[in-house]
Amino acid sequence: MKLRSEVILKCSGLSRIHKSYHKYIIILTLISFNLNLKAQKLTVDNSNFFYQIAPIYDFKQSIVSLTFDDGYISQFTVGIPLLKQRNIPATFYIITGRVDSITKSIISDNLTKDFEVGSHTVTHANLVKIGSEDAKMELLNSHSFLQRNFGVNSGLTMSYPWGIYDNSVKQIARNIYLAARSTDVGYNSLYTLDKYALKMQNFDKRIGAYSANPWIDYAIQNHLWLVEIIHGINNVGYSPIDSSVLTEHLDYIKKVEDNIWCSTVSNVIKYIDESKNA
Ligand SMILES: [Zn+2]
User: Fold this and answer.
1) How far, in Å, is the centroid of ligand 1 from the Cα of 163?
2) Separation of CA 170 and ligand 1 centre (Å)
3) pLDDT digits over 137-190, tens only?
4) By C-alpha distance, which of 91, 92, 66 is closest to 227?
5) 3-state class (DSSP) for residue 63
6) Among 13, 29, 50, where does a domain finish?
7) Among 153, 167, 225, residue whose Cα is nearest residue 196
8) How far is the CA of 223 from the centre of ligand 1 (A)?
9) pLDDT tens digits, one per residue of 182-199
């Protein structure tokens, strides 16, 4: 560059130097603009690269967590055998005040490390409406019930009844649980994760496997954490899905299992927390 400006000075008259100087400034500006663009592009590329290899367990492309709400009996009698046949883990958010002795023994009999029992409060209360003192009791009592009855690995995460929460409810949840699932529709990015408002896709009776399977594809393509929510199965419970639809979906999860880490909500949260502290 220095050489070029000397050449210009030596070989040109004043007006020519003036013109070339302008041209030179324009070239410099263009070069610098281009470098800036390249620098920006490089930053984006870097983050994409980091994004792909960062903290998904076993270098998988995405995470899938199946969650079942409300503790309907068919989740345990129909859902768990289908999950067990395929070694697919799941989280069950149960309403502890509605757990009778039969449900308690079915859960205990089926509880393996693949299954998490989480809280869906004691009475399925609207946590915003009942006020923070009662909300605290709902969250605290269901947590201790689960730990007492199903072991210390239970009651680690929760889901908000009807998906209703506000900042004060979130704060109470933060003091008792590792995470809380909302019913806000979406996928969870590990980089902008709100652990106390985990987003979900609602697998209800209107959704066939033809709609639910692409959620998995989307999570894989975009390196996201997909949390699904299922209520009733086979005509039992709210908006029940047919066991044949669940079977088709679980088979799809197995088909693409090389690309996904399928785990319980608490396991995923523990893994994320540990990765961040590593
Ligand atoms: Zn519910």
Assistant:
1) 8
2) 17
3) 999 999 999 999 999 889 999 999 999 999 999 999 999 999 999 999 999 998
4) 66
5) strand
6) 50
7) 167
8) 28
9) 999 999 998 899 999 999
